[in-house]
Amino acid sequence: MYLNHFGLREFPFGITPDTSFIYSADAHQEALNTLLIGLDTGEGFIKITGEVGTGKTLLCRRFLASLNDDQVVVAYLPNPMLEPRILLIAIAEELGLKLQGFDYQFHLLKEFNEHLMNVAAQGKKVVICIDEAQSMPLESLEALRLLSNLETEKRKLLQVVMFGQPELDDKLSNPAVRQLRQRIVFHYRMPGLKHREAAHYLAHRLRVAGHRDGDVFPPASARLLFRWSRGTPRLVNILAHKAMLLAYGEGKTRVSKAHVSLAGRDTEGLAAPRWWQRW
User: Fold this and answer.
1) Burial profile 103-130: b = 16 or more Cβ within 10 angstroms, e = fewer
2) pLDDT in tens, 31-63
3) Rg for the chain (alpha carbons), in Å?
4) Entry pTM
5) Handedness of CA 118, 119, 123, 126 (dihedral sign)
6) Are residues 81 and 97 in the same domain?
7) SS3 letters across 28-58
8) Is residue 178 located within the same domain as residue 56?
9) How do residues 57-71 score in pLDDT, each as one tens digit?
10) 61 in a domain, yes or no?
């Protein structure tokens, strides 16, 4: 497509989470700090929520990459829409423990406890990271709470980190999981990019992708793109990619406001900024 035209090695605005393109926006860094502080305490659940496209999965990957394998054992579940027994088995397999032969939850928890005690004896922490946690059934959330009961006299044997959309908060407001809700010690709600961060975000991703200066989007175009996307990183990427395609089609090396507007109107679910609709 437009790689050679803009002097790029790779596409700068893909929607697949890629840690090589991480832009440390204020919110992203604050969320990561919350995770690391929560992990350091060794207590309770940690919850990160945010609207679709705000970078939760990318944050999760950055968090996992920051952990020391010699100190932390991680179970990562990207799709946790599982009934309780299958959830426990999936977590166990992530931790290297085979539990398929056990028929009752009591036996599952007993084997879990022995395994976690062995890991603790090695001086390691166990962290369960659950992405898309809003999809978990209430019964599975309760099973997760029961699993978090496993402890020594001094500390918990595992910690649980949940990443989810705002629907996770709605689910946790259910009285059936009120005990779990009380165990959430640290939480953070991820907003989108701030207005002043939009141009830096665009330039950063362009430079990572190989552009010499990262100046494909003039300030006015970057501001308009922010308004169309309302600061949601995934939408910023979609609009930026489409706008660059339009500029490439006209043989131009910089994206105009007209390109951004056309990209916005071509993207399903977006409404033009109010002031733009008057024109």
Assistant:
1) eeeeebbebbeebbeebbeeebbbbbbb
2) 999 999 999 888 789 999 999 999 999 999 999
3) 22
4) 0.88
5) negative
6) yes
7) HHHHHHHHHHHHHHCCCEEEEEECCCCCHHH
8) yes
9) 999 999 999 998 888
10) yes
